[in-house]
Fold:
Amino acid sequence: MLSITLQPQWRISQDDGSALDANTLLHLLAAVQASGSISQAGRELDLSYRHAWGLLQQAEALFGQALLVRGRGRGSVLTELGEKLIWADARIGARLQPLLDSLASELQGQLGRVQRRQRAVPRLHASHGFAVAALCEQLAARQVPVELRYRNSLEAVAALAQGECELAGFHVPLGEFEAAAAQRYLPWLQRDQHQLVHLAVRTQGLFVAAGNPLGIHGLDDLTRHGLRFVNRPEGSGTRVLTDLLLQRQGIAPRAVAGFENTELTHAAVAAYVASGMADVGIGVQTAAHRFGLHFIPLLKERYFFAMPADAIQRDELRPVLTVLRSPAFRARVAALKGYEAANTGEVLSVREAFAA
Structure:
């Protein structure tokens, strides 16, 4: 089975056309940030000290500012510029990687069909999530092909109804907002044509800087003067949740500075907050944990894959469902911060899931 990987890459060049090895520089800065040592960072990246030092000098000459501060007894510390470069790279990866993963999966499927004239590959359309990414990794490890496309929950469910995919990922909050959120998807889900498989329960909440220096405690703080919010796009399940939460609190969107400022994924929101470009965002706990942010839980939600009612009988879908329902995958989901896997792999009718 073909495996295609696409990743974003920096190019920083001077007017004369000479280019800086930006990607190696970024890896070097990240390693120095973690270790506090240029020599140790170089060893981790298989770079000589001379090469690492020369690359840093070249970059500092290009930027006209230092990237590191070297002091006795405290090793090497990134300057503000060095940290900005690291966070910019993190934001780029968080924002673009899901899109590149989708494109790579589409290319992989297309080339595989041409190369081997292989049978139909199941198409998975889903909002980006850490359990979805974990599933795709396990499928790849077991040589189970799937064509992935990341899109928002409403688009995914609509695509299933229109025959554009066989699996559609979407999420619905537990508790008081379940009925209202489910109504966004139920018009596309037919009781006799579709069923659901439970992926995970996960916790959604607010992301704030480590240590919560601004003393943010809940949604009411979003209207505080000077506080900057970063949102998710319209149509995403998290945006639906945000709208419902604000409506319950009686908070008008226009009262929240940055309400129209959006990022495509949970990780991109977390990177945005971690880089200091916003004070608070909303998303799943896993993203906050991975970016070292303080997390304020708001509620839990269920993530499902909607699929055709006869999915278990379909040859192309059976291997995917076997992996999804395996103990190994359940353990992988349970290991994600803020995820619960007690019901992972459970198959439900639309009626059973939502009492529709």
Q: What stands out?
A: The domain at 12-85 is CATH 1.10.10.10 (Arc Repressor Mutant, subunit A). The chain is about 40% helix and 20% strand. The chain has a mean pLDDT of 91. The CA atoms of residues 36 and 190 lie 57 Å apart.
